[in-house]
Amino acid sequence: MALQKGDFIRVSYTGKFEEGRIFDTTDEEVAKTEGVYSPQGVYGGDVVVVGCGHTIAGLDAEFEGKEVGCEGSVVIGPENAFGLPQEDLITSVSTSKFKDGRANVGMIIEQDGRQGVVTKVVGRRATIDFNSPLAGKNVVYDYKIEAILSTNEEKIRGLLALYTGLKEIELEFDASVAKIYIPRGITFNQRWLIAKGKFAKEILDNTDLTEIQFVERVTKEQNEVDAIMEKAIGE
């Protein structure tokens, strides 16, 4: 059956530049070999919703109309990948803003939650480019559509893993209501706070569920452990 917008699928892929250098992959061994491994990454295949923008636009569009088991490779231009470089993301600052007043080409800079790289230093001025290092480049994605998810439990677990990196989470279902027990560790996680509403909308829009309940459970045992940890830190 051909995939349609709104289908939940598990897909494996590897993104690379046209010359072959890999910058992204769902294969853990490939990631380690190519030096792009992240301990926070989720490997073994991503769960995405077709047409919801969970991947770059050019790859997302590639899935619609394909069959489960399909393998392919697609070349994607920058306008449907990581965008074109924007002039307003390139700025010039005094080198006095740098530690010890020293700026070198290639330095990575963190500013206002953005990451940039020093591209030029002339006299006492440094040029910093906050564009994505992938901006303006053609990229190639090799992919395989592994499966289509059918149950609401699979869909919720898969999408939660995409948004939070958590593969194991407690769920309960009552008719068309899903109750999700949120681990305390991510309650105040900025990434989760931003993604929670989007996650709920995508589940409700693309399943037969009518309600999502997020439950933050605090037990006596957890409070006792927290108290011990707080005392240890205080000492």
TrEMBL record:
<keyword id="KW-0697">Rotamase</keyword>
<comment type="similarity">
    <text>Belongs to the FKBP-type PPIase family.</text>
</comment>
<dbReference type="InterPro" id="IPR048261">
    <property type="entry name" value="SlpA/SlyD-like_ins_sf"/>
</dbReference>
<dbReference type="InterPro" id="IPR046357">
    <property type="entry name" value="PPIase_dom_sf"/>
</dbReference>
<dbReference type="Pfam" id="PF00254">
    <property type="entry name" value="FKBP_C"/>
</dbReference>
<keyword id="KW-0413">Isomerase</keyword>
<dbReference type="GO" id="GO:0003755">
    <property type="term" value="F:peptidyl-prolyl cis-trans isomerase activity"/>
</dbReference>
<feature type="domain" description="PPIase FKBP-type">
    <location>
        <begin position="6"/>
        <end position="83"/>
    </location>
</feature>
<dbReference type="InterPro" id="IPR001179">
    <property type="entry name" value="PPIase_FKBP_dom"/>
</dbReference>
<protein>
    <recommendedName>
        <fullName>Peptidyl-prolyl cis-trans isomerase</fullName>
        <ecNumber>5.2.1.8</ecNumber>
    </recommendedName>
</protein>
